[in-house]
Amino acid sequence: MIAVNPMDSASVLAAFGALGVLVVIFAESGLLVVGFFLPGDTLLFPAGVLCAGSAQQPPRLALWQVLLCAAVGAVAGGQVGYLIGRHGGRALLARTSSDRVRRAAERAERLLARYGYGKALVIGRFVPLLRTVLHPMAGALGVPARTFTVWQTVGGVLWSQTLVLAGYTLGASVPHLADYLLPLVALVIVLSLLPLLPEAHRARRERRERRERRDSGH
Predict the structure, then answer these.
(1) CA dist 186 to 43, 104, 192, Å?
(2) Member of which family (predicted)?
């Protein structure tokens, strides 16, 4: 029996290949608490790298299979997340004890209000943690089903295909890159967290302003 760590991209890809991409991306795209612990960017990019072969080594995965599984997992996961939100998403979020889930839900609600449904659903796909809770929040907030389906499909396909193809392009350009998956995953983690920095800065500024108002009130 193969021991597989679902939070380890290399382990998932080695054990299940493109099918592992479909299952993990499906869960990461909308299964709320479960999705928070699964790789997204850090699975798609290495999967693309493993699709690139060389004169010395054939591709370890088929590019068309990974692209198809990534797109299906992203879109289907988003739809299931929306249905979860429509049928009890608010109650589920209220019961969670995870501060990280609650903060992500608040960010998702602000994103939908600030940018509108279409733009928010596309932008949110590229933000770790946020994309897992964005689709259930859209359902809970009553985003029209047709609008949601169109724009989450656009965002899901754009996000998944871009990352896989980026990994494939880099893997085809740099010899033996597939032998360095762990450092590559670490780099993708760092890059994927960059979109969260403005939000973290804004949250710190708001906390500081609240403290200042509270101190001035005394």
Answers:
(1) 11, 22, 10
(2) Belongs to the DedA family.
**Whose CA is closest to 26, among 121, 117, 156?**
156
d(CA 166, CA 117): 27
The 10s digit of each residue's pLDDT in 165-181 is 988 988 888 776 666 65
CA-CA distance, 43 to 17, in Å (whole number)?
11
Structure tokens at 131: 């994309």
Helices (H), the chain: 9-16, 18-28, 41-50, 63-86, 89-95, 99-115, 117-125, 130-140, 145-173, 181-193, 196-217
User: Confidence band (pLDDT; 50, 70, 90) for 62?
Assistant: very high
Contacts of 160 (CB under 8 A, 6+ apart): 25, 44, 67, 70, 71, 73, 74
State pTM to two decimals.
0.77
- In eight-state DSSP terms, residue 179 is G
